[in-house]
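S1.2 Input.
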Amino acid sequence: MHKEGHVILAGLIWVESFNYMKYIIIIFICWFWNAYCFSVVRLIIKISITAVKIN
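S1.3 Output.
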């Protein structure tokens, strides 16, 4: 019984940490995607400014 309790507790902790990992991964992907989008937007703005200067 005592050993089973430990196994169940370890399982619960693992599941909980997996749930947290899931959120961390989602946050990381969102942050990475936002950084990527931001750099693309900056690049587009830079190109636009350059195009305006040429014209």
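S1.4 Remarks. The helical segments are 2-54.
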